[in-house]
Amino acid sequence: MKVDGNIGLDLDNVATNAKEVEAAGYSGAWTAETAHDPFLPLLLAAEHTEQLELGTSIAVAFARSPMTLANTAWDLQAYSKGRFVLGLGSQIKPHIEKRFSMEWSKPAARMREFVLAMRAIWNTWETGEKLDFRGEFYRHTLMTPFFTPDPEELAGFGTPKVFLAGVGELMTEVAGEVCDGFICHGFTTEKYLREVTLPALERGRAKAGKTMEGFEIVGPSFVVSGNNDEEMAKAAAGTRQQIAFYGSTPAYRGVLDIHGWGSLQDELNALSKQGEWEKMGTLIDDEILNTFAVVGEPEQIAPELSQRYGDVIQRISFYAPYASDPDRWAKVMADLKAA
Q: What are the tens digits of pLDDT across the range 296-334?
């Protein structure tokens, strides 16, 4: 199993962080689109590492166009010498419309077309074939030599792998059909992964005439750990709040429904609209916490992760929404890679 780390978004520290992550033996490192751009740190990370895979988990596709993202991903793939993974996500309607001021409609169908359009652009740049992509949401029919990158920039590397994050079945099918990998949302359980996500991915692969061979799944990874009771309590509290935050999102209700906890989504959503973020965390009891997260001392984490997901996922990154000790994760990583 590949184990990935995080290099953060602070441009002053990214180079140092990336070198430390590579030296620690991680397979890859990811950035997320939160308060800062997810791509700029990866440029610095590529400059200061040699083997570390570098990816976005995730960049918001619908905040951009296929053309702009094709350019960014091409350049990062070239500069990193083939180590870039473009991880995409849709975000949710309020953010796309109210935060990014972009159009929202039929997210799964739009995402499918977005990825296909981007691949069509890359194909034109690689082969010189006329660009003629005409879809329901995107239309790309103009490409001149002045705006065409030199295909030799990717010689020996190929275009970037494209991963897609999702929760719902339709978006998950899209990932299976047109992408190279799938990023499980942190708000995922073993039951949901096996009974909903995997069948949806397989349906998508079948649509494309492909099997799951070579398709990478990045696993869910809420982890609650600590070296003493106080650290464990703080870790649990932070993780309960993060689970509650995700659980308040209507689009993720299906994950709760499969466990018979659907009514919890209504409660969490109502509290979120009142700004009661801390109170929301108190609704996540021990059963829910242990279902979404692996809970235990550092030496217990790797065996539990392997038992839950070892036959399903190909790579994992630790999702610990609380202050934690890097040495602790190094121990877990070593255990996972040795499993």
A: 988 888 899 999 999 999 998 876 555 556 676 677 777
Q: What is the CATH number of the domain that holds 11?
A: 3.20.20.30
* Whole-number Cα distances in Å, 116 to 134, 172, 177, 178, 207: 10, 15, 10, 7, 14
Q: Is the pLDDT of residue 253 over 80?
A: yes
C-alpha pair distances (Å), 134 with each of 17, 122, 159: 42, 15, 21
* CA separation for the pair 146, 123 (Å, rounded): 16
Q: How far apart are CA 139 and CA 154, in angstroms?
A: 25
Q: Using the structure block, give the residue that is written with the tokens 């939160």.
A: 34
**Integer angstrom CA distances of residue 274 from 206, 213, 270:** 44, 46, 7
Give domain status of residue 272, yes or no.
Answer: no
Within-domain flag for 209: yes
Count Cα atoms within 13 angstroms, Cβ side, for 198: 13
> Which residue range is the domain that position 26 belongs to?
2-227+298-338
Whether pTM > 0.85 for this model: the answer is yes
In a domain, 53, yes or no: yes
Radius of gyration of the chain (CA): 20
The length of the chain in residues reads: 339
Domain assignment of residue 83, yes or no: yes
Tokens encoding 164: 């897609």
Q: How many domains does the chain have?
A: 1
Cβ atoms of residues 89 and 61 within 8 Å: yes
- In angstroms, the CA 44 to CA 58 distance is 18
How far apart are the C-alpha atoms of 267 and 248, rounded to whole Å? 8
Token pair for residue 133? Answer: 């992509």
Tokens 């991915």 -> residue = 201
27 and 3 Cβ atoms separated by less than 8 Å: yes
Q: What DSSP designation does 145 have?
A: G
CB 190 within 8 A of CB 184: no
Closest by CA to 253, choosing from 185, 164, 194, is 185
Asked if 222 and 294 count as a contact pair (C-beta separation under 8 A), the reply is yes
HEC string of 90-122 equals CCCHHHHHHHCCCCCCCHHHHHHHHHHHHHHHH
pLDDT band at 32 (very low <50, low <70, confident <90, very high): very high
